[in-house]
Structures are given as structure tokens and as C-alpha cells.
């Protein structure tokens, strides 16, 4: 065992997202199958539920566990989310279609955006909001500002 010390454990970014989802073991399998995630570490509670897991995905990492209300760790709300996981991928169409085919709910259909990105938003079966996107072209700030203003006028 090495003696690596620092702000974060060796190999981990200094900022890592953590969230709780019911059926975390199924969520881990889903994220591996649909998004190509890799489980880096997993600790199970005595009852077999996921107490903590770390996942690598698209050059980033995130952590999850079962909800633990006694510790103030709760699952996602029935509707909406206060955050979105964004997965940038060259295979945007295939991954979006697989996510929908395996139980994700479409929140924003896949399409080309004024921002130069091809993107769509789903809510996975475990309640997390995912934006699946590919950056196709750079767009100037002026073009984006004009597009946002036009959308605001349309209501």
C-alpha cells in the first residue's frame, strides 16, 4: 500500500459529485451498461445495500449510495432535480437512444441546440437528470445571447 496523501485520494479529482439513489446496486449496473461507467470502488452495508461506491465515467468521477435519511442523505425528488449530470460523448445519439430504451424518461428530446451542441435530457430510472451531449461547433457569445433573447420573447 502506498502512502499517497493530498487533498483527495490518489486518482480522485478534488471535486467529486455524490448523490443517493434507491436501488443503488441496480443504478451502478445501469450506469455501466448504458453510459459505459466503471465502478472503481464499492462498499456494501451488512444488508447488502450499497453504502458507498465511486464510479469513473468519461474522464470524471462521481459517488453514490443508498439514501440514508438518518444522516440527511436522501434520494432524488419524485419530480425534477436540483442538479444535472452532463455526459459529453461522441456517441450522443446511440447513448441517448439506449438510455430511453432501457427505462429513462425523455425530458428534452435529442436535438441540435443554439449553443452548438447536440443534446437531450433524460431522467434515469433512479431519478437522476442526465444531459447527454456532444459539442459540434463553437458559437459566439453574441449568437448565444441573441438566441436566448429570442427564446425569452417567445415565452
From TrEMBL:
Protein name in UniProt: Uncharacterized conserved protein PhnB, glyoxalase superfamily
Species annotation: Allokutzneria albata (Kibdelosporangium albatum)
Lineage of producing organism: Bacteria, Bacillati, Actinomycetota, Actinomycetes, Pseudonocardiales
Segments forming domain VOC: 12-135
